[in-house]
Amino acid sequence: MNLTESISNRNTSNLFAFRSHNQYVNVFDLFLLHFNAIPNAVIEENIDCENANDYFLEKYRNEIKEHFYQKGVFENETKSKLKEDYCVLDNIIIVFSLEKRRLCFLFTEKQSDKIQTIIDELTRFKKRVKKQSQEISLLINTNQGIETTSLKVTKPKLNIEDNYNDDFQQIHQTIFKRLSKNNDKGLILLHGKPGSGKTFYIRYLISSVKKKVIFLPPNMANALTNPDLLPILIQNPNSIFVIEDAENIVIDREQNGSSPVSALLNISDGLLSDCLNIQIICSFNTDLSKVDSALMRKGRLIAKYEFKALEVPKAQQLSDKLGFQTKILAPTILTDIYNQNENDFQEKKSLIGF
């Protein structure tokens, strides 16, 4: 039975629904409709898909049962060219994503040996990635659902010892070591008052670790329970998932009755976690006592830390290094130390003397 016949009498409502991975068709639905089986999936990145595609079409031309494609204009280009090429074999679908330099292999278990041979052949076309400034994949809402857009991150000049209290040194080493480990999972909870250095530290962290970073902005907290998020996570295994201002996500389920906590648990330590190997960083201002206790169980939690005002001796030392001629009178948050010359429009007790 060919592809058209196998799907003609099936529910294809989701087949051409645009997904966050921007493929012409939902290839997972296509596989299920055509082969009546849930596929195994292997994703390979940084592939010269143009040459890999030419090689595959030539070598396997007698085994390809169906072949279709999508053409379009690449980002920052004007001419239309091949973007996606789909090849259907016996219990195998291979997608060549030329623009994203990505190969997607879907297959049944009985084709494991054959697909491994094909993967070995096509990964010879892997490109060496030039060292570039770190980027994050920002999750955004579009008319087609959840997608990602790349943003460059500039690594801040940050000395951990100067900018944070002494009790943070060991925590930082634990966090950095775990995030540098491949195929790892777990949860990092960073909390404290605004201006205490959480975002500053996260920016330093993600620009220092050689992993892909997915960033969930505060206005998209509901994306955690959106089915469109899963394909993005599947295509980005062994990555770091940053959730900033996560108060509404990590709060105890008994207090708000919502399900984002359950989604976090699945990603960090559930069935999904063994496949995705995604590490999660949550930052928030709320007190740790309000956080769902399930998030802090041993084996799930990599580290937790409360960012507090810098103690007086350290605050004074940092202020002096920054060139300010001031006397620190009380523990002071980082933003007040760095911005001593800025106008303060909030009435508060003076912590810095002149």
From TrEMBL:
InterPro entries: ATPase_AAA_core, Mitochondrial_chaperone_BCS1, P-loop_NTPase. The lineage of its organism: Bacteria, Pseudomonadati, Bacteroidota, Flavobacteriia, Flavobacteriales. Coiled coil: none annotated. It comes from Flavobacterium nackdongense. It comes from the Bacteria. Residues 188-307 form the ATPase AAA-type core domain. This is AAA family ATPase. Pfam families: AAA. One of its GO terms (molecular function) is ATP binding.
